[in-house]
Amino acid sequence: MTSYLFTNGHFLEPGATELRGGMEVLVEGDRVREVSDRPIASASASRVDLRGRTIMPGLVDAHVHVVASMVNVAENAAQPNSLAMMRAVRVMHGMLMRGFTTVRDLGGAEPGIAVAVDEGLIDGPRVIPCGKALSQTGGHSDFRPRADDREGVFAARVGALGRLVDGVDGVRRAAREEIKSGARFIKIMANGGVASPNDPIHALGFSRDEIRAAVEEAENAGTYVSAHLYTDKAIRRAVECGVHSLEHCNLIQPETAAMAVKAGAIACPTLVAYEGLALEGAAMGLGPESVAKIETVRKAGLESLDIMRRAGLPMAFGSDLLGGLHKYQSMEFEIRARVLPVHEILFSATTLAARLCMMEGEIGTLAPGAKADLLVVEGDPLKDISVLANGGTAMRAIMRDGRFFKNELN
Question: What InterPro entries does the record point to (predicted)?
């Protein structure tokens, strides 16, 4: 069993406002064995002198699509399965090299992808999958042009982000099938979206009975429902129906945010998605119908952060990027820093995102018994969050499950 003892560094504890000096971290195998402000004795561990650098938990992105190697999601779904999978491997490697050791996939990644990471077949972050997202006909996972009436087109493809289901019975069966296949939670498209051609932002997805059916099936399996949501009306309806994870939330209002807090919900804003689409979406194949929708949600994004923070609604870190826009993943830190304190942002990308992954205490923390997922960074992220950006260039080491995927400490 490989062991490492990290010494002579600064320790970033999620939620803290300052780094701690004099801490040592012992990793044995795939777990953190000991963390102490006193010298740790280990005869077998390889000593790693951090030379004043910052050691911190691996980052967690709670909203990604690892199979989305193209911005045009209809074309993405139409790829040959073998090509879509190989491109997904490249996307995942990029995420890991940006310091994200765990990602929660919000539609597309089959559970087998998560197993492939666990077995070491893919050098990427740990994946928490929902399988295919559930969408009603004409909803946010229906990427057919209006004149295309083919049924179930592309639903079984590796590159498809979602599947079409209608009616309470259809939702129940689809939820059960995804859970049976290994989905860790259920994702539904409960509002209109940017990347889909036929559903305006204000459109509601699914009936209340359909949403409640998904929630019941998830709860029966010991998990929860995550919902794609933009408008205040859609968010309120989802919370009333028992949805736990509220994705995007750009147009949320104070009363609904307070209601979500009482329900114990968690929001997952993804502001960088709209920045990326605004910068390069059209050039990368986003259709004109979708380009026209971007500004509706982009302008309200920063205001939504302030509304949710004032209400006390927890906000996990998410990016939701597609295709060539994945390179902007870490820009989410800088965007949030325009409104939120840095220590809250780092908490959102570690401990809070771990909660949505249902792995709190195992990831997003460096504590005895936790997964040995860690980063060694030049500089202090609490004073300069940009050290987590720029493609991970300031990260001297990236470890997941006790294995170095990047090591420039010598």
Answer: Amidohydro-rel (IPR006680), Metal-dep_hydrolase_composite (IPR011059), Metal_Hydrolase (IPR032466), Metallo-dep_Hydrolase (IPR051781), OTAase-like (IPR057744)
What would the two tokens of residue 229 be? 């949501």
| Residues 243 and 344 grouped into a single domain | yes
| Domain identity same for 124 and 205 | yes
The CA distance from 246 to 267, in Å, is: 5
Q: Are strands 20-28 and 31-36 parallel, antiparallel or unpaired?
A: antiparallel
State the pLDDT at residue 280: 82
Residue 377 β-bridge partners? 54, 395
For a pLDDT cut of 90, what percent of the chain falls above it? 83
331 and 393 both lie in a single domain: no
Q: Three-class SS of residue 104?
A: strand
Task: Give the span between the Cα atoms of 134 and 9, in whole angstroms.
Answer: 45
- pLDDT tens digit sequence for 208-235: 999 999 999 999 999 999 999 999 999 9
Cβ 225 vs Cβ 214: under 8 Å: yes
CB-based contacts of 19: which residues, under 8 Å, 6+ apart? Answer: 10, 11, 12, 54, 380, 382
Question: Do residues 31 and 155 both lie within one domain?
Answer: no
Domain count, the chain: 2
Which domain CATH number covers 246? 3.20.20.140
Co-location of 210 and 116 in the same domain? yes
Q: Which residues are bridge partners to 134 per DSSP?
A: 163, 188
Q: Is the pTM of this model over 0.90?
A: yes
Q: At which residue do the structure tokens 């009333």 appear?
A: 240
Band the pLDDT of 198: cuts 50, 70, 90: confident
Residues 6+ apart with CB under 8 A from 221: 179
Question: 8 and 89 share a domain?
Answer: no
Per the listing, tokens 């399988």 go with 131
What is the four-CA torsion angle of 276, 279, 285, 287, rounded to 10 degrees? Answer: 90
* Parent domain of 40: 3-57+365-407
Between CA 66 and CA 129 the distance in angstroms is: 10
Beta strands 31-36 and 245-251 are unpaired
Q: Does 263 share its domain with 325?
A: yes
The one-letter code for the residue type at 207 is S
